[in-house]
Amino acid sequence: MGERLVIALGGNAMTAPDGSASPQDQRAAVEAAMKHVGSLAAAGHQVMLTHGNGPQVGNLLLKNQIAADVVPPVPLDWCGAQTQGTIGTLILNALTHPAAVVVTRTLVDAADPAFEDPVKPIGRYFTEQEARRLERLGQTWRRFERGWRRVVASPEPREILDAPAAAALLDRGYVVVAAGGGGVPVVRGTDGRLRGVEAVVDKDLAAALLARSIGASALVIATDVPCAVAGYGTPAARPIRETTAAELRLLHAAGHFARGSMGPKVEAALRFVEHGGARAVICSLDDLGAAITGTAGTVVR
Ligand SMILES: NC(=O)OP(=O)(O)O
Fold first, then answer.
1. 221 φ, ψ to 5°?
2. CA spacing 20 to 30 A to 209: which of 70, 123, 164, 222?
3. pTM: predicted TM-score of the whole model, two decimal places
4. Which intervals hold domain Aspartate/glutamate/uridylate kinase (predicted)?
5. Is the CB of 77 within 6 Å of ligand 1?
6. Hey, what domains does the chain have and what are their CATH numbers?
């Protein structure tokens, strides 16, 4: 009997191992990822996919900025919508199973403090000198292990507005791509109308909300490491295989998972299970099949 799954695809499913986001690298990475996803659909699972867009949305924003004297630049939420279309098209072309892409909006709160504290890295890495120059244009940049990256606001996802449409397609047998890049962030005005806002929603947190919204039995967060590790980078490092939400929450609160990498994945897995989801799995993309049967990854119940 197949399961209803939401699978969040990490950057390694979209770009080359070095993070390169050339069209060739993106196409090759998506084709490799869709072999795993196609196997799950062929085995009878209902599969809803979501994906990251950090490198792509940052590159688009930069192109807009560079070409601003020639064509009017578009805002960040437009760039996010464009990445849903581009990455969604690559996924459609790579899958042999009937599939559909839903342009998806994610409701966020206009008063979310995240708008005052940009933390979400987007685009490619730059040198400090280049980052400092761009900071003078009003942008926020932070240093990461591999260099400097622009950071933007990443508010909490409150509702995946187009989840019902995505679920209807899932019920009809399609593999569905939804809430790509965390969904296009929108706020509701006092007049009840929706408008886009300049932000990038975390795709793992959006995936957890999407999985809850469509009644998925499992949330699978596919990344480039086999599992979550307690005490990562220390002599006491310990891979986590089977765990409970209560145990994992304690480790998370104790700071075992890095803020910009494993932290959001663990938080997403926890939110799904703490709100009644049967299980969440954090696994390597190559282990997707084994992760569904419980023989790979970090399984949270
Ligand atoms: N939107 C988002 O979280 O994208 P990345 O996973 O690529 O950072």
1. -110, 105
2. 123
3. 0.95
4. 4-284
5. no
6. 4-108+156-300 (3.40.1160.10), 118-152 (no CATH)
